Amino acid sequence: MHEIELCAICDRPNCGATVIVSKLGSDRKRFDSETASIEMICPACDKTFELSITAMERVNVSEDQLQIGFFGGRKAARAGFAASSKS
Questions:
Q1: Residue 45: phi, psi to the nearest 5?
Q2: What CA–CA distances, in Å, run from 71 to 3, 6, 16, 53, 61?
Q3: CA 40 to CA 49: how far, in whole Å?
Q4: 68 vs 2, 30, 35, 38, CA distance in Å?
Q5: What is the pLDDT of residues 3-51, one digit of tens each?
Q6: Are 41 and 29 in contact (CB under 8 A)?
Q7: How far apart are CA 51 and CA 38, in angstroms?
Q8: 46: which DSSP letter?
Q9: Which residue in 22, 23, 54, 55 is deepest, having the highest Cβ count within 10 Å?
């Protein structure tokens, strides 16, 4: 089973994990209304990154990915996004 979830890609050069926003606890994300962005702590690398809410994507994610809260790198995220966009 797959679900469409709002995701953000960690911008750290050595990470690039796709983070499932709904799976981050409130202690690991903070919305900044002045910049319309969300500051998050990546569950893959434990580093902070910030992303504009307009740059987030809806991605088709599996049950396993939902349980972990993140997956793959940039190429995996883009392939998932392309597949969900064509449906």
A1: -115, -5
A2: 14, 13, 9, 19, 9
A3: 6
A4: 14, 20, 28, 20
A5: 899 999 998 888 989 999 999 999 999 999 999 999 999 999 999 999 9
A6: yes
A7: 6
A8: -
A9: 23
